[in-house]
Design brief:
Blueprint: E1 6-9, H1 14-27, E2 32-35, H2 48-53, E3 56-58, E4 64-66, H3 68-78, H4 83-88, H5 94-107
Parallel strand pairs: 1-2
Antiparallel strand pairs: 1-3, 3-4
Length: 125
């Protein structure tokens, strides 16, 4: 059984990897930060399709938060000044705006600085 949450990201995406590295170096969330490609995702209750679609925060009890709420959980876990934007991202209407902004960024991550063709999301079914 895990004792720490896990922040799961797409390790094939340059933008995602840079974001995860920034979080580890500057934000210091209290979690393990891992690319989904290095994990047995079934142990976390998620599919590769979901892990490609959004960042995931998985609690030690197995609860999964995705996208902007995964970011919010990471910020909240860091404490200090990072917990303020983390808390704000959980409250409507900022929660809704954060979801829309996250989707806009995730859907266009292949166009962002440092990205490659591998950053493009697979077509939606």
């Amino acid at each position: 059984m895990r004792t720490r949450p896990v922040l799961i990201y797409d390790g094939d995406c340059g933008f995602c990897t840079a974001s995860a590295t920034f979080a580890e170096r500057r934000v210091h969330p209290r979690c393990d930060v891992r690319p989904w490609q290095s994990l047995h995702l079934d142990e976390y209750g998620v599919t590769p399709e979901r892990a490609q679609y959004e960042a995931l925060w998985v609690t030690p009890t197995g609860r999964v938060h995705g996208g902007a709420q995964a970011v919010a959980k990471a910020l909240l876990s860091a404490g200090g000044p990072w917990s303020v934007p983390g808390a704000l991202l959980t409250l409507p209407p900022l929660r809704w705006a954060a979801h829309a902004a996250y989707r806009l960024i995730a859907d266009n991550r292949h166009r962002l600085p440092g990205s490659t063709g591998a950053c493009a999301l697979p077509p939606r079914r």
